[in-house]
Design goal:
With 252 residues, this protein is an alpha/beta fold. It folds into 2 domains: 123 residues, Periplasmic binding protein-like II (D-Maltodextrin-Binding Protein, domain 2), CATH 3.40.190.10; 83 residues, Periplasmic binding protein-like II (D-Maltodextrin-Binding Protein, domain 2). A 5-stranded mixed β-sheet has the order 5-1-6-15-7, with helices on both faces. Strands 11-10-12-9-13 form a 5-stranded mixed β-sheet, with helices on both faces. Strand 2 and strand 3 form a beta hairpin. The protein is elongated. The N and C termini lie far apart (65 Å). The structure holds glutamine. Glutamine binds next to loops.
Length: 252
């Protein structure tokens, strides 16, 4: 009787411990917010979320052992969604700013960027000074919007989707678009009547935003980013989207 009981006890203990270990191994699912109107960082192709940021987060998730669940939303909605806990992470070519860093965590920078001026090729606008008295279109709530809003003598038109700002330039409603340079370049590559002019107006770094309720996730993301920079996976993804243009490349 005693032996039977001990056997039963041993088997139960084994099953229990094994079950617990398996539970611990089950991969964490992280809800990641994404703004799919920011090509080539994120966009939608055939109903799928794709782009540089998407590959980057997937590579980090792989080396750190977590699963990703994508949640598409407007850029403006990402930080509030992180604050309320609807999502735990957001990737959207989001510029690290001191104001945003008060309410969300940012990973180490993963792309170096800046604002540029996009105009029609037959335009007289050559630099920032030439924007005086002009109508400039951009995307609502972005660093371009913040910068332009501080400048006098410029009429700023703000859109939720940057495509509407580009359309405004095309149909003559605006004389320029000021926005993140890689996105302007991406647009110009498929619309031959426009180009960027002048120097970059700002220097900005993109970071992955993480909920302040999840400091452990921040550690994982930074560790993963470091690993994929070291093992060249980051470089491989970078080359896939930006070719030999090293302007945005982060090396450590
Ligand atoms: N980098 C800009 C910002 O953070 C724009 C990002 C975006 O439109 N997705 O404000």
């Amino acid at each position: 009787m005693l032996r039977k009981f001990m056997l039963f006890f041993a088997v139960s203990l084994f099953v229990f411990t094994f079950g617990l270990a398996n539970l611990a191994k089950a991969e964490q699912v992280v809800k990641v917010g994404v703004d799919t109107t920011f090509p080539p960082f994120e966009m939608e192709k055939n109903g799928k979320v794709v782009g540089f940021d998407v590959d980057l987060v997937n590579a980090i998730a792989k080396v750190e052992g977590f699963k990703v669940e994508w949640h598409t939303m407007d850029f403006q909605g990402l930080i509030p969604a992180l604050q309320t806990g609807t999502i735990q992470m957001a990737v959207a070519g989001m510029t690290i700013t001191p104001q945003r860093a008060q309410v969300v965590y940012f990973s180490k920078p993963y792309y170096h960027s800046g604002q540029s001026i996009l105009v029609k090729k037959d335009s007289n606008i050559k630099d920032l000074a030439d924007l005086k008295g002009k109508t400039v279109a951009t995307k609502l709530g972005t660093t371009a919007d913040i910068m332009l809003s501080k400048m006098k003598d410029i009429k700023v038109e703000r859109f939720t989707n940057i495509d509407d700002a580009y359309n405004q330039l095309q149909n003559g409603g605006a004389q320029a678009v000021v926005f993140d340079n890689p996105v302007n370049i991406n647009y110009a590559s498929t619309h031959k009547n426009v180009h960027t002019v002048g120097k970059l107006l700002t220097g900005e770094d993109y970071g992955i935003a993480i909920s302040k309720q999840d400091p452990k996730l921040l550690e994982k993301v930074n560790a993963g980013l470091e690993k994929i920079i070291k093992n060249s996976e980051y470089l491989k993804i970078y080359r896939k989207y930006f070719g030999n243009d090293d302007a945005g490349l982060i090396t450590k």
